[in-house]
Amino acid sequence: MYALVTGASRGIGRAISLLLAQRGYDLLLVARSEDQLQALAQEIGQKHQRQARVLALDLAAPGAAEAVAAWTTQQTDQLAVLVNNAGYGLWGRFEQLNLAEQQNMLQLNMHLPVALTHALLPALHRAPKAYVLNVASTAAYQAVPSLSLYAASKAFC
């Protein structure tokens, strides 16, 4: 069985990828940083004897969800886990932050997980047991004055 992890190159996504490999899943790893993804794929192969394939892609770009879904279905017909982990936050006063950057963050934190989950649900339904994990943040549960849109986007998850 395969698990797809977005934002897999570092942090929580990297840790989740290693845990899934330890539990016997082959991995589909997606993030912007190809060199970090390749290093993780190699580590997964060496430590856990699991296969890991990588796709380096800016997940906030238009059409990213469709591209990931198409790549995923080309790689396997045994998808059992989707981890929507990719995301980031912008710190600062709303009116002082660049609007385009804020919209990019919202695209990645909210719209990508919705579109990707929708596109991959048919594949996940074919698995005997399938899981979707949407990674949020503790910022979702509190007012954070300098992280207002980030907190809102993580509450959305």
Automatic annotation (TrEMBL):
GO terms for molecular function: oxidoreductase activity. Keywords: Oxidoreductase. InterPro entries: NAD(P)-bd_dom_sf, SDR_fam. The keyword Oxidoreductase applies. This is SDR family NAD(P)-dependent oxidoreductase. Belongs to the short-chain dehydrogenases/reductases (SDR) family. Gene3D superfamilies: NAD(P)-binding Rossmann-like Domain. Its EC number is 1.-.-.-. It comes from Hymenobacter humi.
